[in-house]
Design brief:
Elements (H helix, E strand, L loop, with lengths): L1 E5 L2 E8 L5 E6 L10 H7 L4 E5 L16 H14 L4 E7 L1 H12 L4 E7 L8 H14 L5 H8 L2 H6 L1 H12 L3 H13 L3 H5 L5 E6 L7 H10 L4 E5 L6 H4 L1 H14 L2
Parallel strand pairs: 3-4, 3-5, 5-6, 6-7, 7-8
Antiparallel strand pairs: 1-2, 2-4
């Protein structure tokens, strides 16, 4: 098990592949841990150094201080980058991971040279929407919203035909700590990185699942339009987690992007 101390928190991470200067750093979505990338890493193979991290209150990472903001989450990534002595990275941000990626670039503009944004936008949802979700979690736990979340995460095909795997994703979601989940909801509700997205100046790939119920196509496409020269791709038969439902297609798009932007 790999971990580092970031402030008062113990942050769990996974660092694998060749110990090159270049690394792909993966940032997970709300309610998932670093295993959300497992299928995609199987497609990418051992060609690249890959680093995955559990957010505070997610997976095996702690949330003792209960001080979650997009800024503090980006600082955890920054501490990990320094701990591993990474100097040249491609950030991959899924959902809230995209906000963390944008904030990281704001904090550390000279380390990230490529950016992949998955099913995300610089502003996600309204304050009222997040307030309502937080209220439901406080009253009934994450279990109370799990059906709604899974319906947004996955395509109708996956929901219908992958019921056994769906139960494992439900288990991952509901095992997220309540404080970690609520803290991240509050962080998203306060976050608007639209102006930061407008000044991104690096090769950027933006993808979205065709059936994403959390960050719909139009929202993600509008986000892509803010970033000069970005590439926009829609993944068919996928919801909010295309890396889970369509790892081969997502992996192929990733590899083409990385090859064309060496």
């Amino acid at each position: 098990m790999q971990s580092l101390k970031s402030g008062l928190e113990n942050i769990h991470f996974d660092d694998r592949g060749p110990k090159d200067d270049f690394a792909i750093v993966f940032l997970n979505s709300l309610g998932t841990d670093l295993r959300v990338w497992d299928k995609l890493l199987c497609v990418l193979g051992e060609r690249f150094r890959t680093v995955r991290i559990d957010k505070r209150g997610h997976g095996l990472s702690t949330n003792f201080k209960n001080d979650i903001s997009i800024e503090s989450l980006a600082k955890d990534v920054s501490n990990l980058v320094d701990y591993l002595n990474l100097k040249n990275i491609c950030l991959v941000g899924l959902s809230i991971g995209g906000l963390i990626a944008l904030e990281f670039i704001k904090q550390r503009p000279n380390i990230c040279n490529k950016l992949i944004l998955c099913d995300t936008a610089p502003k996600i949802g309204s304050k009222e929407m997040w307030t309502e979700r937080i209220k439901r979690v406080k009253e009934g736990g994450i279990e109370a919203i799990s059906d709604d979340i899974l319906a947004r995460w996955f395509s109708t095909s996956f929901l219908k035909y992958s019921t056994d795997e769906l139960q494992m994703w439900r288990s991952m979601l509901t095992r997220t700590t309540k404080s970690g989940y609520i803290g991240c909801c509050e962080a998203i509700s306060r976050c608007d990185l639209t102006e930061q997205a407008k000044i991104i100046n690096m090769p950027t790939l933006v993808i979205v699942g065709e059936e994403d119920g959390s960050t719909p196509i139009n929202l993600v496409q509008n986000a892509a339009s803010l970033i000069r020269g970005s590439i926009f791709k829609v993944i068919k038969t996928a919801g909010h987690l295309p890396c889970v439902e369509q790892p081969n297609e997502v992996g192929s798009i990733f590899l083409q992007f990385l090859e064309n932007n060496k």
